Amino acid sequence: MTSQTKKRLKTLHRLRIRKKLHGTAERPRMVATFSNMHIYVQFIDDARGVTVASASTMRKDAPGREGLRANAKSAATVGKWAAEQAQGKGIKAVVFDRAGAPYHGKVKALADAAREAGLQF
Fold it and tell me: Does 18 have pLDDT greater than 90?
């Protein structure tokens, strides 16, 4: 299987998931994205098409920012920050969009930390 085919299949998988998940102002979509080095979380209101809040390992005011990478330990930290950002904007419940990633490891650590910090999903 070529890399172009893999990329196309992953895109199709994400689009199938995205058809079913919609964020609203009361319950935005919490998107977790992972690169090889960083973790990004966005809270998106799909009705208006805007990002309400976000958090990532690239946050400038993060303590120990140099040590944050795309691993489960950093994912838990980012999940906690994301929940704090969302609650600061008045968001209590979200729709979790893991972008087709399997629910274990980094994704599970991020979700568990966000739930412990007070988000409902």
Answer: no
CA 116 to CA 114: how far, in whole Å? 5
Contact 96, 30 (CB under 8 A): yes
Nearest residue to 76 via CA among 29, 112, 100: 112
Element containing residue 54 per DSSP (H, E): strand 50-56
Neighbouring residues of 12: CB distance < 8 A, sequence distance ≥ 6:
none
18, 35, 4: which is closest to 95 by C-alpha? 18
Give the neighbor-by-neighbor strand order of the sheet with 50-56: 50-56, 39-45, 29-34, 95-97
d(CA 91, CA 25): 9
Instruction: Tell me the per-residue pLDDT of 106-120, one tens digit each, with 9 for 90 and over.
Output: 999 999 999 999 999
Structural domains of the chain ordered from first start: 22-116 (3.30.420.100)
- Which has the closest alpha carbon to 40: 55, 62, 28, 50? 55
